[in-house]
């Protein structure tokens, strides 16, 4: 008998031999994907102005919670399951969200009884010794005060808030493909609410639905919905009543704009008392600021005044960055009415452009700590014309190392009761929040594609009229290329400044050489690079450089970052060779050294004249350098076009007419050149007009309640206008 059959248990079938590849795979351990799990921690508060708030570590990146589409609501967001639940899941979700009611109560009487409000009402009526005049005027003042006090009756109705939130989820799902929010940042907001300080959300105004997106995000995540400061003039009484029941603070009846309301002597004290009472109740606020128009800063002053008056011990500020693929067409201006609602409904039915939205909440920081730290300051600033005109007209660089004065962000006519120190503090806070909000904004795919298309196809179509794509659309490109630190997103502005500074110096080398193709094998001095970067920094709109950093320090960071990222390499200089001879041999342009002792910094370990740099050798470096230059050239080209169009404008001309006519001239110029349509947007024209006023190209004359502009005598001369035009064009030399 077969031995195998006698002992069946001894039978062992042969296993197929494993290949070496299978053996290696068995030893490998599965690992979680790296992409997207270790994101940079974006949105931290300033380490110089608020070190204690930063030490709280409210914003954490571990564990990574990812992103959430706010408009994607399904049955998993409710506590129910079934076919019917899937049909009404959005309604069930909204009904299950936690609502923090905020009734008005006796707020009106508290505001009316405040010392500030009563005192200002008497001052507005007449002086105390004019008793008869007071008796005649006081009824009119009382009636006007009653209309203003009606704004303090704003409150948040829980039932109406749930209904409107459900409608907004439906409407935003039609308007946008997705509304993305960062869950880690929302978790940080929940931690911030445990500090027992009122939260004030601050964003840069872009469209009329900014605050609606913020409120809807907070509502869907069981956070307190803030009172919204929305400077819109609403004529319909029923619409005003609905908005006031949603916590929206509107302009008073009879005021066409925010500027008209602030000119009222009673409006400011009433709103200051109203803001203090809201914060004392523990309510949150949502405020929008605008750098080009100087709006929104007065509300920050009122929040700070509440702390100074002892109404609240402290307030937590939360910068908010909102990024759109495409701005909603009917919400680019603060307006509200039946016709605008009908136009919006028609646009939804037609479909149209449906982009995405990204909402980022930065880490909350203490307002009291920022104001008491003394780091966030703008005192000692000089007007832009004092900083740049000597460099433009006289080729002197001794004045460019000072700070730029931006007092127009909170002019003296707005809140005249503020002391000069408080006004300067508010301006510094506004600048810092503009910087924090813009650096918190996400990079959208449309911005990246627009940047690349505008660079590769310079005769772009007119649809690429985007004002912010030249700056914010680049940060991801720079990060992937290794040009900035991914945890320091504000570095992309440094990249643009350094590229334009190098381009300006290369253009001067070409000009000295008699024209021709640009030469990249040249030596660039550190002092020249710093001066060019400073000049360009002063031309940027407010909010790109934080007030806790000097312009000179920012320019030095520009040069240092060029070396770190590899665009420039340091050129060795022989110690036994005189620097002036070395500069002459290498063909380097040089300027006189400033005697200002404040120019010294920690990075100046060597003599400034002995340090020089060259472009790195890889062939792709000039192409990338010019790509960075092309992004800021959008704004610089608008400055050139507007300067060339000034002689077409009548003088004097109102500010509104000047804005409209300049916009028309820039659009005609783009149509004539059949290129650079992105330099003719209305937002760029506003920035250009502000720059011309600060530079002294245009003079302001306030009369009859309006602002009239006229070309200054200095720039009526053709020679000075040509010098200014050359100053603008030097930074866009390669893209004329």
UniProtKB/TrEMBL annotation:
Residue ranges of the region described as Disordered: 593-612
GO molecular function: glycerol-3-phosphate O-acyltransferase activity
GO terms for biological process, alphabetical: fatty acid metabolic process; glycerol-3-phosphate metabolic process; phospholipid biosynthetic process; piRNA processing; triglyceride biosynthetic process
One CC-aspect GO term: mitochondrial membrane
InterPro entries in the record: GPAT/DHAPAT
Source organism, top-level taxon: Eukaryota
Official protein name in the record: Glycerol-3-phosphate acyltransferase 2, mitochondrial
Species of provenance: Cyprinus carpio (Common carp)
């Amino acid at each position: 008998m077969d031995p195998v059959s006698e002992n069946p248990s001894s039978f062992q079938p042969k296993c197929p031999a494993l290949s070496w590849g299978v053996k290696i795979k068995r030893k490998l351990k599965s690992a979680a994907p790296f992409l997207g799990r270790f994101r940079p921690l974006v949105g931290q508060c300033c380490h110089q102005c608020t070190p204690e708030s930063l030490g709280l570590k409210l914003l954490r990146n571990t564990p990574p919670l990812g992103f959430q589409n706010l408009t994607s609501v399904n049955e998993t967001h409710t506590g129910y399951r079934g076919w019917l639940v899937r049909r009404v899941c959005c309604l069930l979700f909204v009904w299950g969200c936690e609502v923090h009611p905020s009734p008005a109560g006796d707020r009106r009487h508290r505001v009316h009884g405040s010392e500030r409000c009563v005192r200002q009402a008497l001052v507005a009526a007449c002086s105390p010794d004019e008793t008869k005049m007071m008796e005649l005027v006081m009824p009119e003042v009382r009636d006007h005060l009653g209309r203003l006090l009606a704004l303090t009756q704003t409150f948040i109705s829980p039932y109406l808030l749930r209904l409107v939130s459900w409608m907004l989820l439906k409407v935003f799902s039609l308007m946008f493909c997705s509304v993305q929010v960062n869950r880690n940042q929302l978790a940080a907001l929940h931690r911030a609410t445990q500090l027992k300080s009122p939260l004030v959300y601050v964003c840069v105004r872009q469209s009329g639905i900014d605050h609606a997106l913020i409120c809807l995000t907070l509502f869907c995540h069981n956070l307190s919905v803030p009172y919204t400061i929305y400077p819109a003039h609403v004529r319909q009484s029923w619409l005003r009543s609905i908005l006031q029941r949603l916590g929206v603070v509107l302009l008073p009846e009879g005021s066409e704009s925010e500027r008209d309301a602030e000119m009222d002597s009673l409006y400011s004290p009433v709103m200051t008392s109203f803001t203090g009472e809201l914060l004392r109740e523990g309510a949150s606020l949502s405020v929008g600021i605008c750098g080009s128009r100087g709006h929104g800063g007065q509300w920050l002053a009122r929040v700070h005044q509440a702390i100074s008056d002892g109404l609240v011990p402290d307030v937590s500020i939360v910068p908010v960055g909102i990024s759109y693929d495409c701005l909603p067409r009917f919400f680019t201006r603060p307006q509200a009415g039946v016709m605008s609602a009908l136009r919006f409904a028609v646009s939804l039915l037609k479909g149209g452009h449906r982009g995405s939205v990204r909402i980022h909440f930065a880490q909350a920081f203490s307002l009291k700590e920022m104001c008491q730290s003394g780091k966030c300051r703008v005192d000692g600033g000089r007007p832009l014309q004092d900083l740049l005109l000597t460099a433009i007209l006289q080729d002197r660089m001794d004045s460019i190392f000072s700070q730029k004065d931006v007092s127009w962000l909170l002019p003296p006519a707005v809140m005249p009761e503020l002391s000069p120190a408080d006004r300067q503090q508010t301006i510094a806070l506004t600048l810092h929040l503009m910087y924090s909000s813009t650096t918190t904004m996400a990079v959208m795919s449309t911005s990246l594609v627009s940047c690349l298309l505008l660079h590769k196809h310079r005769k772009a179509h007119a649809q690429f009229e985007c004002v912010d794509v030249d700056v914010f659309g680049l940060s991801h490109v720079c990060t992937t290329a290794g040009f900035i630190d991914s945890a320091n997103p504000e570095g992309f502005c440094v990249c643009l400044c350094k590229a334009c500074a190098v381009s300006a110096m290369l253009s001067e080398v070409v000009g000295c050489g008699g024209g021709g193709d640009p030469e990249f094998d040249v030596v660039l001095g550190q002092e020249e690079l710093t001066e060019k970067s400073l000049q360009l920094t002063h031309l940027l709109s407010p909010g790109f450089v934080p007030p806790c950093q000097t312009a000179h320090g920012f320019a030095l960071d520009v040069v240092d970052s060029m070396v770190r990222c590899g665009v420039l390499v340091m050129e060795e200089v022989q110690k036994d060779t005189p620097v002036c001879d070395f500069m002459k041999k290498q063909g380097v342009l040089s300027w006189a050294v400033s005697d200002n002792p404040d120019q010294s910094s920690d990075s100046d370990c060597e003599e400034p004249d002995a340090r020089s740099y060259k472009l790195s050798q890889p062939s792709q470096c000039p192409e990338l350098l010019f790509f960075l230059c092309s992004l800021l050239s959008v704004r610089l080209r608008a400055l050139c076009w507007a300067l060339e169009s000034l002689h077409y404008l009548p003088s004097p001309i109102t500010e509104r007419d000047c804005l409209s006519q300049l916009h028309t001239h820039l659009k005609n110029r783009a149509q004539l050149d059949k290129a650079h349509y992105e330099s003719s947007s209305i937002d760029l024209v506003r920035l250009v007009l502000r720059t011309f006023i600060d530079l002294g190209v245009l003079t302001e004359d306030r009369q009859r309640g309006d602002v009239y502009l006229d070309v200054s005598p200095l720039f009526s001369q053709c020679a000075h206008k040509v010098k200014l035009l050359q100053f603008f064009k030097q930074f866009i030399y390669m893209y004329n």
